[in-house]
Hints:
Blueprint: E1 3-7, H1 33-41, E2 48-52, E3 66-70, H2 76-88, E4 92-96, H3 98-102, H4 104-107, E5 113-116, H5 122-131, E6 138-140, E7 170-171, E8 174-176, H6 185-190, E9 194-196, H7 199-207, E10 213-216, H8 225-236, E11 241-245, H9 254-262, E12 265-273, H10 277-282, H11 293-302, E13 306-313, H12 322-332, E14 337-342, H13 350-358, H14 383-397, H15 400-413, H16 416-435
Parallel strand pairs: 1-2, 1-3, 3-4, 4-5, 5-6, 7-10, 10-11, 11-12, 12-13, 13-14
Antiparallel strand pairs: 8-9
Helix pairs in contact: 7-8, 8-9, 12-14, 15-16
Amino acid sequence: MKILLVLPAADHLRVESPGGRPPKRAMLRFSVLPLTVVAALTPPRHPVSICDENVEAIDWDCDADVVGITFMTALAPRAYQIAAAFRAKGKIVVAGGYHPTLCPDEAAPHFDAVVVGEAEGNWQQLLADIEVGKLQRIYRLPQPADMATTPVPRRDLTARTARHYVTTNAVQTGRGCPHGCRYCSVTAFHRRSYRHRPVQNVLEEIRRIPANHFMFVDDNIIADTDYARQLFQGLISLGKRWASQCSLKIADDPELLRLAYAAGCRGLFIGIETLDERNLATMDKGFNESRRYAQRLAAIRRQGMLIELSVMVGLDNDDVSVFARTLHFLQAVHASALQVNILTPLPGTPLFQDFQRQGRITDHDWSHYDFRHVVIRPTRMTAAQLQDGTDWLYRQFYRLDRILLRTLRSLLTLGPITAYIIWRLNMTYRYDNIRERIIGRNPAELE
C-alpha cells in the first residue's frame, strides 16, 4: 500500500497549487514531527510520503491507497475538506491527532477510521486490518504507549522541504504533563499523565542528527527533574545546541539550570500566561507564582539563555489595562520573543466544559480556535476590545525599533550567536504580523 500523510494548513498559510510559494521566512512549525514518527512505525513494505500544506500543495491525483491526516482543532474544517476530496477518489482516509482524539464522535463521519490517542500500536493494527479487509471505525488502545518502543522519526521524508523550516531536527523525550491546567489540551489528551523515553534512546537519536543544533518539542523538558538531570549529563559530551519548552520552575533549581546550559540549552519557551495571581488560580496554574516572575526570568537570562514568553489574554480578571501592563512587563524583564494567545476553550478541556455550561462560547467555527480569534464572551471587556488589544500588544512588541534594541542588548549580554537567533525569531513574528495586517489599538486609551 502507498501511504500519504497530510498536515493541513490554515487558509491564509496554505500553498494551494503546484509550484506555489510558501511564506518568505523559515517556519517555527514542529507539528510535522508526529507524521515522521507515524512513518517510522509503518512497515517498510508500505511506501510513505508526507505533505505539509504550509510548504507545498496536495497532489490530489497521487496514487496513494491510504491517506492519514493529523490535525488540531483549528484545522478540523480543512481536514474534513481534504478527507472528503480523497474519499471521493476512493482512498481510505484516516484521522489522528488532538482533535480526533478529543472529539472522535464528531470526526468519525468524515473518515473511514479514527485513531484515538497515540499512534504506537494503533497505527500498525490499522494497517494490518486494511490488508485483510477488516478496517475498524475507531482505534483506541486501553493503555498509553510504551515510549521505549517509539522509533526514531523518518526525517528523510522532510529533507525535500527542510529549507522552509527553522529546523526539522525536532526531538521528543516525553509526552504529557503532570499539571492540570484547565485550558490545556495536552493534559486532556494524555489524561494528566507524563511518560518519557529511555535516556539512552534519546541520546542515540541526537547523535544521529548531523546538525549541531536541534529542538526538544516536549511541553516541559524538566517535568521529571531526575530524568532531566540524566538527559542533560548525557548531552554535555555531544556538544550540540538546543532549545525547548520548559516550566518556570527551572529557575528555582540553580544546579539544574547550570546543567541545562552546560548540556547546550540556549533558549527556553516558557508559558507565564498571566501576571494576575487570581487568573492563575482560576486556571489551576498557581504554581507559576507571578510575583516571582521577574526574579526567576532574570536567573534564566543570567545563565545565558534567550527566553520566549507565552502570555494569555482575556482571562476573567483581565480588563482593558492588561495589554499595556503586559507590554511594560515584557520590556522590563527583557523577553527575547513573545507569543500572545487569546483565551480559547479547546474541546475536551475543563475550560471548554466551563464556558459551555456558562453559555460564554460565542463562536463555534473551529477554524477560529487558533488563539488569534475571540470565540468567547469576556467578563471585563468586550470581544472587540479583546481582539484589538491583543493585536496591539503583538504589533507593539514587534516594532522594528524594539527588535533592534532587543537584539543589541542580547548581543552584549548573550553573545552574537544567540543575538542573531533572537533577531531572526523576532523578524519572523514581525513578518507574520505585517503579512496578516495585524495592527490593533490599545482599548485602554479609548475609554
